């Protein structure tokens, strides 16, 4: 899943495998479902990142955050604030890049926004 990205006219080597939501720095980012935080940290491309394991092979990731509101190992419930919107990493402005993976395969998160998570 995702659109191919070419930088400076080069070959397509990576894909945009998530959904971008515009926002402002500091906008609260909420967990969509119950889960366990398995990663919080900085990634060069994605900036400040939170990853949540929701079980049964469903993992969600949140990139470009301005701050973390959870730590690795925290259990979160749906609606728990996990971070704040930002523009860290390779970002052209404040937004949330949200990725959803099922069995380690990126899927179109739009299809899940109105679905019930496990």
Mean pLDDT across the residues is 87
Count of alpha/pi helices:
0
Report the structural category: mainly beta
The helix/strand series, from N terminus to C terminus, equals EEEEEEEEEEEE
Beta strand count: 12
Poorly predicted runs: none
What is the CATH architecture annotation?
A: Distorted Sandwich
Percentage of residues in helical conformation = under 10%
Q: Could you describe the largest sheet, including whether it forms a barrel?
A: 7 strands, antiparallel
Task: Explain how this protein is built.
Strand 1 and strand 2 form a beta hairpin. The model has no long low-confidence stretch (mean pLDDT 87). Helices cover 0% and strands 49% of the residues. The strands form 3 sheets. Strands 3, 5, 6, 7, 9, 11 and 12 form a 7-stranded antiparallel β-sheet that branches. Strands 4-10-8 form a 3-stranded antiparallel β-sheet, with no helix packed on it. The chain is mainly β and 118 residues long. The chain is globular.
């Amino acid at each position: 899943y995702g659109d191919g990205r070419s930088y400076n006219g080069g070959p397509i080597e990576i894909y945009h495998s998530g959904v971008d939501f515009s926002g402002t720095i500091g906008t609260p980012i909420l967990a969509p479902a119950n889960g366990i935080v398995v990663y919080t940290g900085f990634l060069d491309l994605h900036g400040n990142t939170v990853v949540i394991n929701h079980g049964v092979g469903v993992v969600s990731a949140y990139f470009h955050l301005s701050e973390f509101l959870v730590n690795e190992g925290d259990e979160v419930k749906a609606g728990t604030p996990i971070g704040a919107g930002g523009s860290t990493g390779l970002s052209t402005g404040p937004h949330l890049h949200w990725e959803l993976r099922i069995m380690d395969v990126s899927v179109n998160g739009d299809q899940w926004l109105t679905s019930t998570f496990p």
